Amino acid sequence: MIGRRRLRAMLTILAGLLLAASVLCAHAATPLVGKVDSVGITVGDMDRSVAFYSGVLTFKKESDTEVSGDAYEHLYGLFGLRLRIVRMRLGEESIDLMQFLAPTGRPAPVDSRSNDRWFQHVAIIVSDMNRAYALLRAHKVEHASSGPQRLPDWNPNAGGIEAFYFRDPDGNPLEILHFPAGKGVPKWHEAGDRLFLGIDHTAIVVADTDASVAFYRDTLGLSIAGTSENYGIEQEHLNNVFGAHLRITSLRAAAGPGVELLEYLAPRTGRPMPADSQPNDVWYAQINMSVRDVRVVVQGARAGHYTQVSSGVIELAPGLGAFVVRDPDGHASLLRQK
User: Fold this and answer.
1) What stretches of 84-206 show up as alpha helix (H) in DSSP?
2) Which residues have C-beta within 8 Å of that of residue 179, sequence separation ≥ 6?
3) 33-106+283-337 to CATH, choices 2.30.110.10, 3.50.30.30, 3.10.180.10, 3.40.190.10
4) Theoretical Cys-Cys bridge with 53: which of 33, 59, 127, 210, CB 3.0 to 4.6 Å?
5) Predicted local distance difference test score (pLDDT) of residue 4
């Protein structure tokens, strides 16, 4: 027979296990990431970039700030940091242009390709592809596609979508995208006279979709919103990669732009993110996300052995903890508790 003291001890342990299980279930039921706030893009000349994004793509400047000091140095792992951040809004979505005044970083490699794993673009929705492309041509933007492409109808998830890759003044890749009726979220089909409507997603090249899903879904709590497998001459000309065959997985939080994973099933010749990449390098970009408990995210990142950029949770202001972490391919996410 079990003694009363031992029985009480067993019941206490059982109660503790049930409480822990309920806490874990609560965490699982409520995703850690509540919103993708914006996409951060490192630039070399802020005034030139602001002129491009506002004058060509009709983004509106919302704020212009400079930050420095110990907290930001530990957030980004850069000693002596001075950072200028300009927030630009298009429709309901935003980007944060980031110029590291000190220390300065390196420009993007001139031979960057769309299947290199430092590739990350912002997908801007347009109401008319022909008009948008003509405007970009008038401003002499650098092509990253051979021209706008209409994805074929045999592909049920992507058929009829029109897309074009180009580059900003620093060589950062961008995309304009037009959804046909029945594709994309409803707001992209609302009547209006604007040409550039907003940001649908940011896309990143990954080596292994399953490993990336483990980070964005299982660690951060984003949900898979759709999948597609794209190939053919249109995809080759869109990505400017001969023989391009992609596995595409879209993830979303409850609000904000999506995160699109691009795995090149062929050719598998894309180069990895440079091991010594730093946030002040112009090929650096980050996905800015709001989280309900940044410390839980840090625990998950450490448990998954993901690379920390920050030395830990950094208090940028009272109640505002932040943490920068890299996914399995080196793409960065800035997680802020709000």
Assistant:
1) 129-138
2) 125, 161, 188, 189
3) 3.10.180.10
4) 59
5) 58
